[in-house]
Design brief:
heterodimer; A: mainly alpha; elongated; B: mainly alpha; 9 helices; disordered C terminus
């Protein structure tokens, strides 16, 4: 095979369109001819380069431009008109203040205890709003306080503090003593704390003359028993 | 294919949205074809618009029995590009050499930028410059085959020549393109070597 024949068959060879016999002839020639090998490599490079080339992106206004040139201006649909009205409102600089206003309004309505579904005449009085907001605030505070004092961590820390306050100096490191059987309490320790053996729950025995913890409503979580001897 | 025919039928029935649909499907392809032929974005935009105006005016002359809509569209676009090439031949001959040299010298070498994107863009520009140096016959054959992925039969229908001629043009086009690219890289090599300390 000559160089010229190889040149003519280059594309067919690379695209796999040659008959097996022709292909074998080309292969045999390529083995012994560096020039044709280089040529084949160059053509392959061109094909790969073309296939790897990405499309050029037309400008976004090209289609509308052609549409105007062919069918003229198109009348916008109802949906498009509506979208044109809404679009400015959806801009972040407008949408954000609107969202914040709605959010603030909902918080105020909630705090004032207003039920917008069943609005009464007295609900329109600002004095009522203030009273209700005040009541809501106190209720929220009370709930938060109760939640706080019901936490086990808070409870334990308080118990430790009380124990430490009741012990003489130098004995802070001492571990709290368990309540002796029979309900007796050691002298100088106004309250005892122990892990009840029966349920694993913390119980606290508070002496009658000791001021009670600040509590709100029913106690939840841990059992606070007034001087209840642990069996 | 079926979708094209459906759009076409609706378009012929006067449905504007169908024409818009056809435009959205084919504008990119025709724009790319025009860009590969001209190498200039603005010129490619104008040519794309002209092609579609022509298509819009001659839509009724499309014959389903003579091939797909895509092939017909490519044929119309190709004929328009050939006309354009003939019309502007004189303008190009007066300034082609200077333009080529200026364009080539203004382009930084691929090694100058570390970013892959820049390299890819430069490769694309290099390919476009090499395509610009091919004769129109060879260029259109290579573009339709290697960049638009049309098969030999479709290219033969678009160009209106036998498949054997198509094969021969594609092969010669690739060989020529390889030589041009090699020459360009050869020119680039010494320039890079000279810029090094």
């Amino acid at each position: 095979m000559t160089h010229l024949e190889i040149e003519n068959l280059a594309s067919d060879y690379l695209e796999g369109l040659l008959e097996p016999s022709s292909r074998a002839s080309v292969d045999a020639h390529l083995k012994g001819c560096a020039e044709c090998r280089e040529l084949m490599g160059d053509v392959r490079h061109v094909m790969e380069m073309c296939q790897a080339a990405e499309d050029v992106e037309p400008k976004p206004w090209l289609v509308p431009k052609i549409l105007r040139a062919t069918i003229g201006e198109r009348k916008p649909t109802w949906g498009e008109r509506l979208a044109a009205y809404i679009r400015p409102v959806l801009q972040p600089r407008v949408a954000y203040p609107i969202a914040m206003t709605v959010f603030t309004f909902s918080i105020l309505v909630n705090a004032a205890g207003l039920n917008l579904r069943s609005l009464r005449f007295e609900d329109l009085n600002p004095r009522t709003w203030v009273d209700r907001a005040n009541r809501q605030g106190h209720l929220m505070y009370a709930h938060a306080e109760k939640f706080y004092y019901d936490l086990r961590v808070v409870y334990e820390i308080e118990s430790r503090f009380r124990l430490l306050r009741g012990q003489p100096n130098g004995q802070e490191e001492a571990t709290p003593k368990a309540t002796p059987p029979g309900g007796g309490s050691s002298e100088g320790a106004p309250s005892d704390q122990t892990m009840a053996s029966n349920g694993g729950a913390w119980t606290e025995a508070v002496s009658d003359n000791e001021p009670a913890f600040p509590t709100l409503g029913n106690q939840t979580g841990f059992t606070r028993a007034r001087r209840s001897p642990i069996p | 294919m079926e979708q094209d025919l459906d759009l076409l039928r609706r378009c012929l029935a006067g449905e504007n949205s169908a024409w818009e649909g056809l435009l959205r499907v084919y504008t990119r392809k025709i724009y790319n074809l025009c860009y590969r032929f001209t190498g200039r974005a603005e010129e490619a935009e104008d040519l794309t618009q002209e092609v579609f105006i022509k298509i819009f005016q001659t839509l009724r002359s499309f014959d389903v029995t003579q091939g797909s809509f895509s092939t017909w569209l490519h044929r119309v676009a190709r004929n328009h590009l050939v006309d354009h090439y003939r019309r502007t031949k004189k303008d190009r001959m007066t300034g082609s050499i200077e333009e080529d040299v200026e364009t080539y010298e203004a382009t930084p070498s691929p090694g100058a930028s570390p970013h892959g994107q820049v390299e890819a863009r430069e490769r694309k520009e290099q390919l476009q410059r090499a395509l610009d140096r091919l004769s129109p016959d060879l260029r259109e054959a290579v573009v339709l085959r290697d960049l638009h992925d049309l098969d030999y039969l479709e290219i033969a229908q678009v160009l209106g020549v036998p498949q054997g001629t198509v094969k021969s043009r594609i092969n010669r086009g690739r060989l020529e393109l390889a030589r041009v690219l090699k020459r360009m890289e050869g020119l680039r090599g010494p320039a890079e070597a000279g810029s090094e300390p």
